[in-house]
Write a structure and sequence with these properties.
The structure holds 2 protein chains of 2 kinds. By secondary structure, chain A is mainly α. Chain A is built from 14 helices and no strands. In chain A, α6 packs parallel to α9. In chain B, strands 1, 7, 8, 9, 10, 11, 12, 16, 17, 18 and 19 form an 11-stranded mixed beta sheet that branches. Classes of the chains: A mainly alpha, B alpha+beta.
Chain lengths: 318, 550
């Protein structure tokens, strides 16, 4: 186990290095740059633009900029936002709680409902319930989330007046009930799509398992149907699902671009949209690196957990 | 990251029409009228904006709009401009003029008397040293200031006593009055001791002299201000002022409707929702004049546009009224100049050549551009075909482009649409004059001063090594002469004559075709009092001390 972990960590470091080089290069190769924000400002002259470019170091060759940036990253200096002048580390860290709150709650809810629907649909294959959930899942996956978001705002905020139209809490703060009220709508919108995914995954995994010999054996032993289904069936079906969950972990931190924008949710997704729009390189690179780190860790966690729930898999061979 | 990439949010009132979610807009426009989940808090006024203010240092921030709004709430400049266009003293004790001796006879020496009774939010007194420090910072090569606001014309400056500053200019520069209306003063006692102003904590925890003190910021959500009871302009009436960031226009509209925000400001309500907004109960919908003028920019350095007859023909072929009515619901005001028609220097005698496809076609015939067999005109091997660019995803502009494209097609001119993300189109593509034509909204550099040298002076073409913003590559010696004269004369009536002539020549030469001046559609809840749009100060937080809520 220890050797496996060391090995994987070594690979991860190389991977992150590669991601940083490619990410940095792509960002600078892409047309446009942070100076457009200055050009758009009518009080800024071309002279000002040249001066600011020099001040940001953007007039240097890209590899020089990369070495400076990477050196800073390694020594804990993530740099400063071009537009806010604040340390990038703080800018990114202060957005993580909001994203964790939204993504965590909607993923937990979606896992619970999605797995329940998937199991039921697998057991009652080709029933009305199966067809109804399949149709709902298709709808949820094909319609864009911003549409669901605006629909929710239209009904629950504008028409009925039950829920706020956006934000993480009332201005000035309003305690736990207020925060839950703000969380409800974006959480449901995001969960809706996730439930659709999870119920489909679970259904197909369960159908595979239900046909296995050991399920028949379990039934033959005289175990209760619930025990057979959950103890033997679901446990085995969870193995591929854990891998999928691990792959979704980055979203837990990365946030949801569209949903966060529609609901004014002050998380990473919204930060990324803004930083991308202004080409705030230091902020974008920090988000990219945090994202890459979480992807690497998510995969690692998925591997370890898979081994824990499935004794057939040995990490040493992974 | 989950989900697709959104278009970028843009900068400035003109450029902020982010209605990508048009489908949703139509839906919300049907809107129910059930209101007030969150009725307003007593004494608190909430300003809703669609971009996030992140830097509150008045010299460093870039986003004119939301960050200027914060600047006016927390800081003061030496004087303001009121809705009639008159300068009124703010940190200065009086407006310097040649009559009161504040400005020397040659216009180059300025003696500015400051109010002695002003203090910073931390209690320290405001003095002439702060004004001198502000100039030091603006001219410091290590500080990433957004713009030097015309202060590069300063030869020397000093504090002659605690409440008097003397500034000597190196050349004639009449717009300098506006420089000090646009430059907020920053505190020396705080910023002189930080190692690096660019990254100082002050930039997110500002201390000013303004009507409100910065209280707190929640990243990605809101900024709260509390009143400054000892404000030199009189204590504010509100107990709390909040700038709330709601990135999506439709969501902000919904929040305005439910009363979660009191003022829908800065970029304004999308024109699509204007008619609906006017019927909202408990709200006033105001049109606030904006200095931004929408143009078609012709790159005069390209062979298609070298001849002004082509530009004139294209201008006559554009259905400006259709553009304003169909795309912007009739809200903006037509203009024939780079100034909005309500500006004091606007030339009211300008004649609109009008929308006339026959005349336009005849003009092209005269100029030698003959229709080819492919339906496109050509002359000396140059086909009259070009691209037009603007920010991709700006739905209103995209509609306008299609309209113009149809107009041009009828006179044998082929226009293709080549839109790009804002960070691309407004980068080198614009600055180095790589475009054919642009659809763009801009205002004068030191608006409301009518000086436009930076955009029309022949020495100010970046593509030819100049240092200005003459992206259309326009060159006219008479204009150069008039521009120089315009900034050397101080008397307003004298200046008006010069700028009248400049506008006349520009309408003849048409390096850029003026279409309309923007009007921002502002929504204000009836509970808010004292809110007053100011055409000369397009950021409406200019008089927050007067605001109150009931």
């Amino acid at each position: 186990m220890a050797r496996f972990l060391l090995n994987r960590l070594g690979q991860s470091v190389l991977l992150l290095l590669g991601v940083s080089v490619i990410g940095f290069a792509l960002m600078h190769l892409a047309p446009g740059g942070p100076m457009a924000v200055y050009t758009l400002n009518p009080t800024v002259t071309a002279q000002d633009i040249e001066r600011v470019k020099h001040q940001f170091g953007l007039d240097q060759p890209v590899y020089v900029q990369y070495v400076k940036w990477a050196g800073g990253m390694l020594t804990g200096h993530w740099g400063y936002s071009f537009f806010g002048g604040r340390p990038v580390g703080i800018i990114v860290l202060e957005r993580i709680p909001a994203t964790l709150e939204l993504m965590g709650s909607s993923m937990a809810l979606a896992l619970f409902i999605g797995i329940a629907i998937g199991v039921l649909a697998a057991v009652r294959r080709n029933s009305v319930f199966d067809y109804a959930t399949a149709t709902a899942a298709m709808l949820a996956l094909s319609l864009p989330t911003f549409w669901f978001g605006l629909l929710g705002i239209f009904f629950f905020a504008q028409t009925l007046g039950w829920l706020p139209a956006g934000g993480i809490e009332s201005t000035g703060g309003g305690g736990l009930p207020d925060r839950l009220q703000h969380l409800l709508l974006p959480m449901l919108v995001l969960a809706f799509v996730l439930v659709a995914k999870w119920s489909r995954y679970t259904r197909s995994a369960m159908i595979d398992i239900l046909g296995q010999d050991y399920m028949r054996t379990a039934r033959a032993k005289g175990l209760s149907p619930a025990r057979v289904l959950l103890g033997h069936g679901l446990r085995a079906a969870l193995v591929p699902l854990v891998t999928l969950a691990g792959l979704q972990l980055p979203e837990l931190v990365g946030g949801a671009l569209v949903t966060e924008t529609v609901f004014s949710w002050p998380g990473m997704g919204l930060l990324f949209v803004n930083a991308l729009g202004t080409r705030d390189y230091p902020v974008l690179m920090a988000i990219l690196m945090v994202g890459a780190l979480v992807v690497v860790l998510g995969n690692l966690v998925a591997d370890v957990v898979t081994a824990l729930i499935d004794p057939r898999i040995k990490l040493a061979h992974a | 990251m989950a989900e697709g990439e959104l278009e970028m949010s843009e900068n400035g009132p003109v450029l902020g029409r982010r209605d990508a979610l048009l489908a949703g807009a139509a839906l919300l426009a049907l809107g129910g009228t059930r209101s007030a989940l969150a009725a307003g808090v007593a004494g608190q006024c909430i300003l809703g904006v669609t971009q996030e203010a992140v830097n509150f240092n008045p010299l460093l921030y870039v986003n004119t709009g939301v960050e200027t709004s914060v600047e006016f709430i927390v800081f003061d400049a030496l004087w303001k401009i009121d809705p009639t266009g008159a300068f009124v003293p703010n940190l200065a004790a009086e407006i310097p003029t040649q009559a009161n001796g504040g400005i020397s006879a040659d216009g180059r020496t300025w003696t500015i008397k400051l109010r002695p009774d002003v203090s910073w939010h931390d209690g320290a007194p405001f003095t002439a040293a702060d004004v001198v420090f502000t100039l030091d910072t603006l001219l410091n090569p290590k500080v990433v200031v957004r713009s030097r606001n015309g202060h590069e014309h300063v030869a020397s400056y000093e504090a002659t006593d605690d409440h008097t500053v003397k500034i000597v200019l190196k050349d004639d520069f009449a717009p300098y009055m506006v420089s000090w209306q646009k430059t907020s003063v920053i505190p020396k006692h705080i910023l002189a001791i930080v190692p690096d102003i660019n990254t100082a904590p002050f930039n997110t925890q500002p201390i000013g002299t303004g009507p409100f003190k910065f209280k707190s910021r929640t990243a990605g959500a809101s900024i709260e201000f509390e009143p400054n009871p000892s404000y030199h302009g009189g204590a504010p009436k509100l107990t709390s002022l909040v700038q709330k960031y709601v990135p999506d226009q439709q969501t902000l509209y919904a929040q305005f409707q439910t009363g979660e925000v009191d003022i829908y400001d800065t970029q304004g309500i999308p024109p699509l929702l204007y008619a609906k907004a006017k019927t909202l109960p408990g709200s006033k919908i105001l049109l606030s004049a904006s200095p931004f003028v929408e143009f078609i920019y012709f790159n005069c350095g390209k062979p298609q546009f070298a001849d002004k007859k082509v530009r004139q023909a294209l201008y006559q072929a554009v259905d400006k009224k259709g553009w304003i009515d169909a795309v912007y619901y009739g809200v903006p005001i037509p203009t024939l100049s780079y100034l909005p028609p309500n500006h004091w220097a606007y030339n009211k005698t300008l004649k609109d050549p009008g929308f006339d496809l026959k005349k336009a076609a005849a003009l092209l015939d005269d100029a030698g551009w003959k229709l080819g067999s492919d339906g496109v005109r050509a002359k000396d091997g140059v086909r009259l075909t070009f691209s037009m660019s603007t920010t991709a995803g700006n739905k209103s502009r995209e509609q306008a482009q299609q309209l113009v494209q149809q107009n041009f097609k009828k006179i044998g001119v082929e226009m293709t649409i080549k839109n790009m993300p804002a960070s691309v189109v407004w980068g080198d593509y614009t600055v180095k004059s790589e475009f054919d034509t642009l659809m763009v909204g801009w205002d004068a550099l030191l608006y409301p001063d009518p000086d436009y040298t930076d955009r029309i002076g022949s020495k100010l073409i970046p593509a030819k090594g100049g240092s200005g913003s003459n992206y259309v590559q326009y060159e006219n010696p008479e204009i150069d002469e008039l521009c120089a004269k315009g900034t050397s004369v101080v008397d307003q009536a004298e200046r008006k004559k010069i700028y009248d002539r400049i506008q006349e020549i520009l309408l003849e030469d048409l390096p850029f075709a003026p279409i309309f001046a923007y009007e921002v559609i502002v929504g204000v809840k009836d509970r808010v009092h004292g809110y007053e749009p100011d055409p000369y100060t397009p950021i409406n937080s200019w008089n927050t001390a007067e605001w109150s809520v009931s």
